[in-house]
Amino acid sequence: MPVQRDHAVIVGGGIAGLTAARVLSEHFAAVTILDRDALPTTVEERRNVPQAPHLHGLLFGGASALDELYGGFTVAMTDQGAPPYDPQRDVAYFFPEGWIRRAPSDMRSVFGTRALTEHTIRTLTRRLPNVRFRHAETIGLRRAGGDRVDAVVCDDLDGLGGLIEAELVVDAGGRASRSPHWLADAGFDAPPESTVQPFLGYATVHCHLPEDALPGDLRAVCAPPAPHNTRGAFLLPEENNLYGLMAVGTSRDFPPGDPAGFDEFLRTAVTPVLHEMWQRAEPVTDIRTTRMSVNRLRRWNELARRPQGFIAVGDAVAVYNPVYGQGMTAAVLQAVALRDRLRQADDLDTAVERLHDDVMAVTSFAWQAATASDLVFPVTESRNMPAPTPEERAGAQYLGMVRATAVDDAYVAGEFYRALGLIRPEFLLADEVRTRVERWVADPPAPTDDLSRPPAWADADPPTRSRPTAALPPSGTAAVGH
Prior knowledge:
The chain is an alpha+beta fold. The chain is about 30% helix and about 20% strand.
């Protein structure tokens, strides 16, 4: 019989906390969400979220999971003006190997600001009758007998009391999560932690664009920094007929926030297309900047003695360089993993014990993808990163060949997009994909010198160039890095 208990407390009212509450509402008589800020009831940026004004991408896997959890997320977003899109057809995505092949697919997601996405999820969560929100700042955890956490200690901001007892405490406190310190104060060990710091920054402006600003039938352009150029840029449509234009610089090549510096940065980025769009744009906001880009992984699953009655999700487990757009989707998929584990388990402690491994399984591909991409830049610094295994090195080599094949092969491109969307990354090792990659390795296409222009039409052949040929790793290779 699925777990059924009385009370769960979630620290943090962001996307990870909201989706965890949706899941826990099926298994607990009451669920309380604590947040140090009074959460907005309209579409507005939440306080203490440095990434809020910048572009956010809800990947295919995240949109599908939210529809599964709430039964109407995509409709609620589009009703508020969020543009739906097919990630393979509508987006031009640049990698060092070239522009990924554009073609129609069965994948669907929605564009939208972080404010609209959070507002929509928060509104759907507020409708759950056994979920309540409290304005309170968590300052610690109470340890009961043995290894059990049984309460949250908080500053009483709303007058309802500063000690909240619970059978399950969920840390969804985001990048600022302090649960390792709280647990250390309670006598537990902190989880092992790895970081990768690429020294990346953003500069973002929201603007109007003429209808013919994007070439062909393109709706968005994603051109992150590449090994040959530390300057990239992104353009995504948003609600209210706006676009978000974001300059991205890595290796301490930070984009400036003044219009002249912003213009010069885009002019020298990996593709001139976004600079051309900026010249036609009508800004409706100032250019806002941030330099928060560290990747951080807390390996809760490696703790020899794990606290009972406590789990961590979202950025409290893994923080990714936001340029790869994985954070929101990873948090939602962790909520799905929590749902599945609670439905399968008869005992809460057993479910909690196994969930740490489930969360790491969801996190693994996104972590490998983000860190491997950042580590190609020599300025990037890492701490407590284990040396890659032979299988991981072979997986990274193979994924480079997958990307190269995806420049020309629509089928491989589709499977690659599913992997990027955190759906079925293991399918990149399927026989059909490997066969097509082998064919590309044996006969790479003729080179082309100009990779600066994205494919304007989804049904046109994109530009290609020759790639270094290499033998495929053994078919049993399980690690797929980026």
